[in-house]
Specification:
The structure is a single chain. The longest helix is centred in the middle third of the chain and has 37 residues. The protein is 65% helix and 2% strand. The N terminus is likely disordered. It is elongated, with a radius of gyration of 25 Å. A two-stranded antiparallel sheet has the order 1-2. It has a single domain, classed as MetI-like (MetI-like fold, Orthogonal Bundle). The two termini are 40 Å apart. With 317 residues, it is an all-alpha fold.
Length: 317
Amino acid sequence: MSTVEPSVATLNLGADDLEAPPLTLGQMTWRRFRRHKMALAGAVVIVLLFVYAFGGALIYSEADANFTDTGLRLTSPTAEHPFGTDTVGRDILIRTIYGGQISLLIGLTAVILETAIGVLIGAIAGYYGGKIDSILMRFTEAALNIPQLFLLIVMAKFFGGSIPDVTVLGRTFSGSVIVIILIIGLTSWMYLARIVRAEFLSVKENEFILAARAIGTPNWEIIFKHILPNSIAPIVVSATLGVANAILSEAYISFLGLGVQPPTATWGNMLDGSYNYIESAPWLWIFPGLLIVLTVLSINFVGDGLRDALDPRSRAV
């Protein structure tokens, strides 16, 4: 009787290795992600920025952020005012705290809107195909031809002053915040829609989708419970990078004086007018500019790490 000799790999495995349960998708993703050192550093910086922006509100009030003292205008950084003061004597440290809340809020909510529209249009186009796909993709391509920054500037200028201030959880927001969120969200979904469509076109031909159709599974269930979870990786990466793009877009138009209007502070509108004091009062642009750079770089690093960690072709754990 012949016997099968154990392989070298089997002989080298210990008892713990043989008994260890297989890794879940989440565990494999985390192992891949933590190997990306810059992504880990970016994640830590993002957490610290959120603590700074939202935890700082427990120490300082919004009234402190808007308090003016012309006797202290353009004061350089001191122990009392670590980031200095602006042209009307407002403390820049406190304003970066409250400005960070709005900048991060705009980035997150605009991406939620962008992702919802992009996923919905891409999923419908990719799943149903045919005329529906042609119509939706032609509409998407037409929207891609509209210069986003130009549209953002025009619409912000046109609607920025027409919406009254909004009070949420005791905070008063300029109506321009809602305008900026809507404009960024409604002009940023096209690339994601094309990505989702491509994923759906690929996944819907798999055998488990064909089997689901054969047993009469409703289309909405196939789309949202079977295909969408298998297409989540590029969506997560796109949404992550979209936050950075939304924050930058808000900073662009706020720097031009067309974005979020006072008294609401953002990192972007804190830069408005600082170009007049580039040499005489550099703290006006250094601190809000540094926070924008740190946020955008950190989010991009995290996006790169998620792209590698969620790549189904990556086997290294």
